[in-house]
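Session log. Operator J.P. requested a structure for one protein chain; no other inputs attached. Running the standard single-chain path with token output.
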Amino acid sequence: MEHRDGRTAAVTLAERSYLPMLPGTRRTTFVFVHPVGGSVSGYVDVLAALPPDTPCVGLRARGLGPAGEPHRNVPAMARRYLAELGAHHAPEDLVLTGYSFGGLVALEMAAQLEAVGRRPAGTVLLGTWFPLQDVPRVEHVATFRGLVSAIYRIPRELLELEGLSDAAMVAAAAAAARDCPTLPAEYRSADLNRLFGVLAANLRMTWAYRVPHYGGPVHLVRPERPGPRDDPGPWSERCTAGVVTHDVGGEHNSLMTGAHGERIADVLATCWPD
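Structure written below.
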């Protein structure tokens, strides 16, 4: 990823989760947690619009590479990510930021830091919906199908997944994707079973997650015309210091791209000028 001033985001395919993305001289470091698909590539427009001296790191899901297995619950994922961050940064210097599912992980990380008396500099939920509970199997499958279609450009009608276990669902989706001409070129040499397995695991984790109480302020970035699931009310019940909302345009799936990503960068730079 090339920044507008020529800096390169050093995103590697190593199994570690911690990925240096942009160097910088500021003390405050922005941490971008992966969404449900596991990759941090979707943050490229936000990174490009940040001030040039802003240090940024990403957290990529375990299991995308061959050396590790996906996490099975959000608290364990958060603990692993905090351990990796702690080797490089003081918690008080970090703004924990996550798009969609990544916002759940960012908030869990903030709560775990607060529990040991080291609250982060900030917590930002980018289009993160408060998780539903007791989701029926049919909705789980439908959501998985929708995500595979949206992320990997596989027509939904090719994804016949009803009545399958998660393992069989992942295998069927991967088989359909391999034969699909709309699959983006960057995924054609990838292990699709592994990519879809991370997606399915993170989706299961979403349905099982119970949002903790958190005493620090939280920023919620929403589309310009928020839908019912963009309501800050459930977050406010858990985040006792309050929830600040920022409506930046677009809709959920386009929130990170183009002008919307630039507005998110403006929010981050304004709220944390160092």
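Operator note: Residues 37 and 66 are 16 Å apart (CA to CA).
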